[in-house]
Amino acid sequence: MKKRSLLLLPFALAALSACESGGNNSKPYVAPAKDINSMADFLKMVTDNPYNNSSEKTPVRYSLNVDLDFKNASTQYSIKDVELIGNKHRIKNFTVTDANYAGFFSKVKNCIFSDLTITNAYVAGSYAGAFVGHADIAIFKNIKVGEFVEVGDGVGDQVGGIIGYAENAEIKYCENNAAVYGVNNVGGVVGHSFNSNIISCTNNGDVSGDYDGEGVGGICGTYTNEWTFEAREDTFDSNKNFGNVTATECEDVGGLIGKHHPVVKQRGSRYPKVTISKSTNSGVIEGKNHVGGIAGSGACDLCDTIFTSCVNQGSVIGKNYVGGIAGYTKDFSINLPYTTGDEIKQVTFTKCSTKLNESEDNFVKGEMYVGGIAGNGTSFSNCTNNINVITVESLFSDVSSFFPDEYQHSIGGIVGFGYAYFDLAEFSATVCTNNGKITGISSESPYNLASSLAGICGYSYGGKFMKCINNGELNAAQCVGGLIGTLEPRQETYITESNSNGNIIVNRCAGGLIGDIEASNEHFSSIRIAKSHVDIEDAHVYGTTPSPESEPYKFVLGGLIGRANSSTDEDEYYGEQGKGITVLGNYTVDFNYRSPDDAQNMTVGNVIGYTKESSSHIKLVQYKVEEAETVATITRTGSI
User: Fold this and answer.
1) Helix (H, G, I), strand (E, B) or coil at 639
2) Separation between Cα atoms, residue 238 and residue 221, nearest integer Å
């Protein structure tokens, strides 16, 4: 598709907005509207403003004064340079089944539409919407698709309840109640949004994606932003989804946005930002991979993407990369002109949360990389998860062949996999709280085989964990930690002012803060723990997983760290460089547990449960802070 110069688009849309408001706000001039009092008047408007008119002009204003009843006729129109004021009237009883650009209006350009309702209609095809198939430079305000409307036949792309494809548009205060069906880029309000703002829109209709499609969302299927040399901020703000989104064979499935994909085609000195804010989901969201309560995927290419003050209150179900807010995220590294070094453009989450629904039965469920807020990610602040996070392990039918160290599920109350892009960006979780139960379930085995499960981050490459709290119960086979399940310290790890309070049910290895540390010559940075507290009332160590004959398992509990492992014997490698584990004073551990009376190879430590012999270079150094009380006790209270 040929694109106009993106440098001019914001100004074109701004000019269109000025037309809508009447021009100069101090002395507004509103051109008189031409009345549409009959079907003949409407058809004359279409004839007088053809879409293929090459001239550019200020939109001509029309006022719709009657409902338009097409009496089940098959019809559609294309117009340009029109402002149509609906006055809350209805356009009803029509059918459109064109292969492409299907909608009451097939194509519109340089248009403004307000206060209109669509009822009793059927629209099918690609680039299909009940109101508009394809829109370029347009404003939609208070457009409602009402009862008895169905959009899509399940085989089309770019399918939306109101608009199929919106380019350089502003869509605000719009509402969809239609059922929407498609394959790729399917949304309750708009199928594919390109360089557009979507503000205060609501979807109540169910949205379905079929086959192996991608980009299916309650509000917008795919939300794309593209820039050249200009700096701009596109906004997705205060939108709500109440409909169910079902696309079990599709990727990039979300309650609000299925696929978010901003790109910068030409590198310049100014880079854009996309904000997804104050938006909520209450529907059940179900997809295959990259599934989220707000957005299925949130990759950013040379721009910053911010999720802020978003809330999910629905269940989210998928396979890999599943999250209460976002399923999959990806950061990018860029080399800025006229500067030295790289800059990381990140996806960040701030003030995002999940909430229980009225029946308190909503959850996040997946197999790998599953989180209460995100399946994976690098930056979280002031985020709270309040719903259960479940991993369903269905990959190993023969439990005797399962070796836990070779497979990490990565399940967390905040994020499943906490990573840093090319080790250039630092992972951070600040003032984050998990209150949900984090559980591993095996669907094909009597054993719980899930590993790398934690209240905050399931699998971590390190980074900062500051003022984080876990209050939820943790239940998995091994590598279970109050904050971090498995830590592979590729970058410096700093845990401070964080608390672990949730009970633990584990087979093999658990720690109050960190379940397992997996270090190597290539990846081992320093680990520091300070001013953090463990208060676990009851932990069950049931010790039933079969052991390979080559390496008998040790059942491990540690007050702060369950197990510290390493694949290297080079003591000097870390000792000379000052790397290792440091536990500062002013921390407390109160950890009560139960285990079988005949548990073999059980090792317990007030601070570290077990350090592998080949990890002798990992030093434990305790520093007392003056006038600060340091208490570490881990107590067996009985058998199970």
Assistant:
1) coil
2) 17
